[in-house]
Amino acid sequence: MTREELVENYQSLFDIDSNLHRLVKRIELLNYINPLNIEQEKKKFYSAKYNYEPQYKYPKIKFNAYKLHRLFFSQRLERIEDEEIRKLYEDVIYDHSSLIECIEKIGHGKKFYYNSLKSFGTPTEIDLENAKFILRFDDTEFDEEMLPLYNADDASEFFKEFSKRYDFEYNMVFTHNIAAAAMVRNNTQTLVLRKNHKFSKNQLKVLANHEIGVHMVTSFNALDQPLKIFFNGIPGNLETQEGLAVYAEYMSGCLTITRLKELAYRVIATDTLTKGYDFSATFDLLHNQYKLNRDKSYSITQRIHRGGGLTKDHLYLSGLRKIYNYAENGGDLDILLTGKMSMEYIDVVKKLQQLGLAKTSKYFTESFQNNDNYNKNLEFILKSLK
Question: Which residues in the chain belong to E strands, given as ranges?
């Protein structure tokens, strides 16, 4: 069936999908949550001997939250005849409504934190047990590939070379104002690199497989779909997508115990928000009690406390556990790469595929095909997670 025939047969669905796409384009959380003065506040924090609450500044919001809410909930979903598909779009609207509230409250302390809880949840006791289990393993063996020897220009060249294995083109920009070393802006197919960051050889491999091998792959697969819902995000997609991205690190052979410990520290740091820790207390836990070095402790603390308490980082580890178990049990990874997809909605997406309203993945993560993982310790750890 051609696209024209699909639209004619499902006119109401495509109208609503298109309306939501126009609205969602304005509410990319990562465009607003990264502080504009990370480095300045880091210097103040160090100068104050770690006894200072950073005062982060954030980009101005470029939409009217109340009007956006109203437009989201004005969609006439009763026009979608299929009950399962209608329910999917209801969930999408509620999910994006929660994101609007999150963005609206960035920098407003507890108000932001409570909205973050609604969108991303918080670590469970099992998540914490898994994190502490990972921290028992030794990662002190010297590895030359872990030395931070490469600047952002070197990283850019590495990513360009890596990307030759995929038949798509994307933008690349440098900035000081992101919490991570690199990230993908899904809405513009842009890889953003932190300008002043020093990368190790291992981190370049990790980021290439994570950001390009999964996040960029799912972005371009989403662009190939008839419905924009795959591009804008199916509810719960963060845990699935980050799980896939870290699983790609594992399957490419570049995941290390050090990297796995970083994800564990994020779980523990996220849990401190529930316990009411301020910035200094979370930093103290990581740096003085867990003996994590100063810059890593600051980086993780900053990721968690930005905005007023962002809880999403605990989902990387739980996502990895779920994807690993799913793949080990013969689960179809292709359907999870069709866009910003969530494991919870596999059945309804299969139905969309059967109706011709969704396609299989145009691009597939190379590391999933090649399977270069060889680390028996990592295999043991992942098999042991609850």
Answer: 148-150, 171-175, 182-185, 190-194, 199-200
pLDDT digit string, tens, across residues 245-290: 999 999 999 999 999 999 999 999 999 999 999 999 999 999 999 9
One DSSP character per residue, 22-66 reads: HHHTT--THHHHS-S-HHHHHHHHHHTTT--------PPP-S-HH
- pTM for this model (two decimals): 0.94
pLDDT in tens, 349-383: 999 999 999 999 999 999 999 888 888 999 999 99
**Gap between the Cα atoms of 290 and 302, Å rounded:** 17
CB 231 within 8 A of CB 244: no
What order of strands is seen across the sheet that includes strand 182-185?
A: 171-175, 190-194, 182-185
pLDDT exceeds cutoff 80 at 301: yes
Contact by Cβ (8 Å): 209, 254: yes
- Scanning 58-104, the segments in alpha helix (DSSP H) are 65-73, 83-104
Please choose, from the candidates 208, 214, 219, the residue with its C-alpha nearest in 3D space to the C-alpha of residue 182: 208
Instruction: Say how far apart CA 382 and CA 372 lie, in whole Å.
Output: 16
User: Distance between CA 14 and CA 9 in Å, rounded?
Assistant: 10
- Percentage of the chain exceeding pLDDT 90: 89
> Is the distance from CB of 227 to CB of 340 less than 8 angstroms?
no
Torsional sign, CA 215, 33, 117, 232: negative
Contact present, 184 and 326 (Cβ < 8 Å): no
